[in-house]
Amino acid sequence: MIYTVTLNPSVDYIVEVEELTLGGLNRMKRDMKLPGGKGINVSRVLKQLGVENTATGFLGGFTGGYIDTWLGQEGISGDFVHIADDTRINIKLKAGQETEINGAGPVITETETAALLLKLEALKPGDIVILSGSTPPSLGGDFYSRLIAVCRQKGAEFVIDTTGQALQDALSQGPLLVKPNHHELAELFGVQISTREEIITYGRKLLMGGAKHVLVSMAGEGALFITGQEVYHASAPKGQVRNSVGAGDSMIAGFVGTLSLTGNVLEAFRAGVASGSATAFSDDLADRALIEELRPLIAISQL
Questions:
Q1: Is 123 exposed, middle or buried (0-12, 13-18, 19+ CB in 10 A)?
Q2: Residue 249 is a catalytic residue
Q3: Predicted confidence (pLDDT) per residue in 265-297, tens digit
Q4: Which of 102, 142, 151 shows the shortest CA–CA distance to 4?
Q5: From CA 228, how far away is CA 297, in angstroms rounded?
Q6: pLDDT, tens digit, 9 for 90 and up, residues 195-253
Q7: Is 291 exposed, middle or buried (0-12, 13-18, 19+ CB in 10 A)?
Q8: Distances from the Cα of 152 to the Cαs of 5, 146, 171, 176, in angstroms?
Q9: How far apart are the C-alpha atoms of 52 and 108, rounded to whole Å?
Q10: Structural contact between residues 108 and 31, judged by C-beta atoms closer than 8 angstroms
Q11: Given 12, 68, 127, 249, the catalytic residue
């Protein structure tokens, strides 16, 4: 089984206006309310790919209920800890360019924290746990480490998709996959990266740190896949970019889902790039039809 863990989910309220007038009245051209959170995005794309999975984490209040209902309607198995505080709302304001206003997240109690850790006690060898996104401030900076410790104790693989110290701390525990974009990779090592060769150099450092596979997304320049001594490049298909939210999560879903079904890392890489691109070309997350349309267009070459 694949599990996704979203510690700080959200309802993403997407608002589009013709022109933003600060301090004045603005009327919406269009709006959408979508379930948000990186792990939840992964679960939704895995479902599109026909890969059964269980979404867990913390949900609370009417906003948490909205997410729970949405996932149920999509046929996604949810096993969340229901908390007393409300799940946050994130605002994505589109007025020519996109402005994001993200909530900090709910207060998680010790009892609620213990309930999530208890859920992970059901893990078995061969399971994959995808840990994605930010952590509510109330959980502290080491909560991912506590989750990873349970994964290792139970013999489950884990994928980590976060940034900063939490990612650094996770490397030595042997994540199945890490997936920074080229900007996050540069920030992680405190450097400027301007060439593909530099991306490969610092991507290899993630392997040396303990990661089993490294995916680095490069927007229109495609993606790099670094595994063992080998490096592969995948081209990015052409299309109109309509959505900046969830492409990286979709790439993880495509990679992990296909790897779990086939065991073939290059086909997993291809599916990951197709899934990420399909989301970038959509208003919401990718659907299966567009992923399958793009998959044969992804050219992979060994560097």
A1: buried
A2: yes
A3: 999 999 999 999 999 888 888 899 999 999 999
A4: 151
A5: 26
A6: 889 999 999 999 999 999 999 988 778 899 999 889 999 998 888 887 777 889 999 99
A7: buried
A8: 15, 10, 13, 12
A9: 28
A10: no
A11: 249
